[in-house]
Amino acid sequence: MTKIGVLALQGAVREHIKALQESGAEAVGVKRIDELNDLDGLVIPGGESTAMRRLIDKYEFLEPLKAFAKEKPVFGTCAGLILMAKTIQGQDTAHLELIDMTVERNAFGRQKDSFEAELQIKGVGEDVNGVFIRAPYIVNVGKDVEVLSVHNDRIVAARQGHFLCAAFHPELTDDYRLHQFFVQMVNETKKVIA
Amino acid sequence: MLKTGTDRVKRGMAEMQKGGVIMDVINAEQAKIAEASGAVAVMALERVPADIRAAGGVARMADPTIVEEVLNAVSIPVMAKARIGHIVEARVLESMGVDYLDESEVLTPADEVFHLNKRDFTVPFVCGARDLGEASRRIGEGASMIRTKGEPGTGNIVEAVRHMRMIQGQIRKVSAMSEDELMTEAKNLGAPYEILLQIKKDGRLPVVNFAAGGVATPADAALMMELGADGVFVGSGIFKSANPEKFARAIVEATTHYRDYELIAELSKGLGTAMKGIDISTLLPGDRMQDRGW
To answer: Where does L-glutamine bind (chain A) (predicted)?
Structure first.
């Protein structure tokens, strides 16, 4: 069975585990580096990106995560998307630098501006409920990045090879289509590696 | 169609804070220390609970200057406290762009009968609770997050433990009940029936439940996680300790890795003096903040 980890340093871990299980994968929380070993893919959940980064640094998780991502699929939502971006607007440094894109943090405003909206996501669905919470968005993408969803002229979901990211929180709804899409990506990569 | 202020958006904001530590701060400098230490949010206050306790008198919403200063200092969410039932303090803080409001017993209540109708607001609310009835009433009024009341500003974990054990035990009891026993339980707890029914089905509160009120050390934070808290508020415990930055970092790590006891031992070494604590039995009835609200 396909086994997918959810980085469990902080944030909405439980919801991702449930969504992955509902999508037909085995799912576990990952708190230590050695727990990455037998995984086929990884989800980086929503949470606070600054808090997650401090815990990543503290336990020297950054390099093992980058090494993991060389072969295995990674899916980041909200804070996870920020951690995956090559460039963060207004900051000199980024985090895992997996996807060739520039993102802006808290780009839709403060919590009172957080919203739900119906999204069209390429390959996933025409009516996906997007939950945006103090969300970032993707300002621009490199040539190898495929834009999957745009909301009010802003890029909110994208894919580059075996990396997937979303500015919103599919794990907060009962609609598991985006997780199914990721599990499919993981299964395909698994076949190639095997 | 774009919808703001929905239950999903308000509760979801708290879901993103899980496994994290929310720290009380009184200025931009402390807020920056908290953010750099890995706090998931800060609570902007004029005084930390220990100082509110010492100062006596009426404790009100913080000076908006302080809230504004903190809002501008950090990129993590900023929370602020309004008095129980004080509609205008809550509206003022909401208008300033505060990300989360705490209708808090740490401040002197403005209304001894009615809590805020939190469903009216776009901004989400966290409220304190000592038992499942109180938690359910607050959720019924629209709270998007619950925290134990504990006994704020004492540096004594005993009340937070009491409240967390009480709530978790009552959830287990309700989960095991047959549905025909539930209305009587709702009556006994003073809990809205529909919310109790949902708790029975899910085996947990429909919102995130943090620990608060007395967390002073990394081991205290880990204890509350062990007892089932989704995360931890630390009020006076950090900036009333000898070395705030070190305490803040240690409490964050102990909250994430709450079952890694060797790590907690390492984190706890040479931390310096924790805040001076207060034995609950020495508090006069009027000084017990947890008895405020119903």
So the answer is: 47-49, 105, 133-134
pTM metric for this prediction = 0.96
**The tokens of B81 are what?**
């406290």
Model ipTM value = 0.94
For residues A117 and A77, give the distance between their C-alpha atoms in angstroms, rounded to a whole number: 16
Output the six-digit token pair for A71. 């072969």
Domains of chain B as residue ranges with CATH: 7-274 (3.20.20.70)
CB B214 within 8 A of CB B160: yes
CA distance B246 to chain A (A): 13
Taking an 8 Å cut-off on Cβ atoms, the answer to whether A133 and B77 are in contact is: no
Q: Is residue A126 annotated as a catalytic residue, yes or no?
A: no
Could B75 and A9 be called an inter-chain contact, meaning their C-beta atoms sit closer than 8 Å?
no
The CATH number assigned to the domain holding A161 equals 3.40.50.880
Judge: A111–B77 Cβ closer than 8 Å, yes or no: yes
User: Which residues in chain B are contacts of A116 at CB distance < 8 A?
Assistant: 2-3, 6, 8-9
Q: Consult the annotation and say whether B214 binds a ligand.
A: yes
- Whether residue A188 contacts residue A123, with contact meaning beta carbons closer than 8 Å, is answered with no
Q: Which domain holds residue A136?
A: 3-193
Residue-wise pLDDT tens for chain A (194 aa)? 999 999 999 999 999 999 999 999 999 999 999 999 999 999 999 999 999 999 999 889 999 999 999 999 999 999 999 999 999 999 999 999 999 999 999 999 999 999 999 999 999 999 999 999 999 999 999 999 999 999 999 999 999 999 999 999 999 999 999 999 999 999 999 888 77
